[in-house]
Design goal:
Number of helices: 10
Strand content: 5-15%
Structural class: alpha/beta
Strand order of the largest sheet: 1-2-3-4-5-6-7-8
Mean pLDDT: 90
Oligomer: single chain
Largest sheet: 8 strands, parallel, barrel
Radius of gyration: 20 Å
Length: 395
């Protein structure tokens, strides 16, 4: 998922680079055959499992008439959308609000997000809002990936957002009743310096402490509205981290980050969110990662066990997942057929796991630059991949 300040980091959030050779490609092809055979006769995911799409370039900045119609045709149940507090598309990106808990404050600009939730309602799709990006006035004129200096400012914004999208708020400009948003995320991949920095102070995981304040602020703000049925997930962790503060780009592995945010007092959230991306194109959704610090689909139980130990049996939300395709990505990509097979396998695993309530695929459409992501169901020029039909067929 992209923040407004940066593109996704491949070494922290997505697959890591690996050698390319004919033996590996042969192994991948053989694995796909085994995957297809293993899935024969397996039941589809249960209705309990929400299937979703995350593609801000399309849902926020694309043609909403076409995009939301396509999401509906895909039988998408939930769409993840960045609700930018700051940054270029920030609701409060300009100046501090006078009445920060009031969604009618004149400094707030909700127009982009109002449009998205209204289109989602038109096509009977739920919205998962991910509150991200600090406005510069709230963090000492720093970039959007630096935490606010006062968590109260974030809490106030979360309260205003949850009030506006409570299902009971009429837009003053035209009297339109805005739909309810009941699923919320606190930030994105805070163990990745692209989205939260700094990660360390010496050897101390300060990102865990900063994120605990972010998580608690979003939880308190959303739940402070006392609207029934709202759920907030925290964590939203990237699958890997180097745990090395001396590197040029330090990051924190998901289990270490989970412990750090717990130690710093993160609490009150309804679910733990994670992004269990593969690390090499030879990995299937059942492959145990080589790095013991990584958490992918293949060892997701390790994360579940640690969440249980620290917070009890909270639901797990997979709020980003996907496989890139080759072509065009000949380093991280798998074939179109593999992408489709791995998608079905991942949803089957999620369906069988009573802890997983949501699986959100990243992306709808490939990004138009190779440094981005090519995990879409549709190519840049609009051609549907086999995964399109696979996603649509999932109940």
């Amino acid at each position: 998922m992209h923040s407004p300040s940066s593109l996704r980091s491949r070494d922290c959030a997505g697959p890591a680079r690996g050698p390319r050779d004919s033996a590996k490609r042969l192994a991948i092809s053989f694995t796909v055959v085994l995957v297809a055979l293993s899935l024969a006769g397996v039941a589809s995911p249960s209705p309990r499992l929400l299937k979703g799409i995350d593609d801000n370039a399309q849902t926020l900045n694309g043609n909403p008439d076409a995009v939301f119609a396509e999401l509906h045709d895909l039988r998408t149940q939930i769409v993840r959308i960045d609700l930018n507090w700051g940054g270029p598309q920030g609701v409060a990106g300009g100046f501090p609000t006078v009445r920060p808990t009031d969604p009618n404050d004149g400094q707030y600009n909700w127009s982009l997000y109002d449009r998205a939730v209204l289109y989602a309602r038109q096509y009977n799709i739920a919205v998962l809002f991910s509150i991200v990006s600090t406005p510069s006035w709230a963090n000492g004129d720093n970039p959007p990936n630096v935490a606010p200096t006062s968590s109260q400012s974030l809490r106030d914004f979360a309260y205003a957002a949850a009030t506006r999208y409570s299902g009971a708020f009429r837009r003053p400009s035209d009297g339109v009743l805005l739909p309810a948003v009941t699923h919320w995320l606190a930030w994105n991949e805070p163990n990745n310096p692209v989205y939260l920095t700094p990660q360390y102070d010496g050897t101390t995981i300060v990102s865990g402490r900063a994120y605990a304040a972010i998580c608690n602020a979003v939880v308190a703000g959303v739940k402070g509205t006392l609207i029934k049925g709202e759920k907030v997930a925290c964590g939203v962790t990237a699958p890997r981290g180097n745990n090395n503060p001396s590197t040029a780009r330090p990051s924190v592995s998901p289990l270490a980050f989970l412990r750090a945010m717990k130690q710093a007092g993160a609490h009150g959230f309804d679910a733990y969110a994670h992004h269990p991306y593969y690390g090499d194109p030879s990995e299937t959704p059942t492959t145990t990662p080589d790095a013991r610090t990584a958490v992918t689909f293949g060892n997701l139980k390790t994360l579940e066990n640690e969440v249980t130990r620290l917070y009890g049996r909270l639901p797990i939300w997979i709020t980003e997942y996907g496989y890139q395709t080759n072509p065009p990505d000949d380093i991280f990509g798998v074939s179109d057929a593999q992408q489709s097979a791995y998608m079905r396998q991942a949803f089957t695993i999620a369906k069988r796991d009573p802890r997983i309530d949501m699986l959100v695929w990243f992306l709808l459409r490939d990004e138009p630059f190779l440094s981005g992501w090519q995990s879409g169901l549709v190519t840049v020029d609009g051609q549907r991949k086999p995964a399109w039909a696979t996603f649509r067929a999932l109940p």
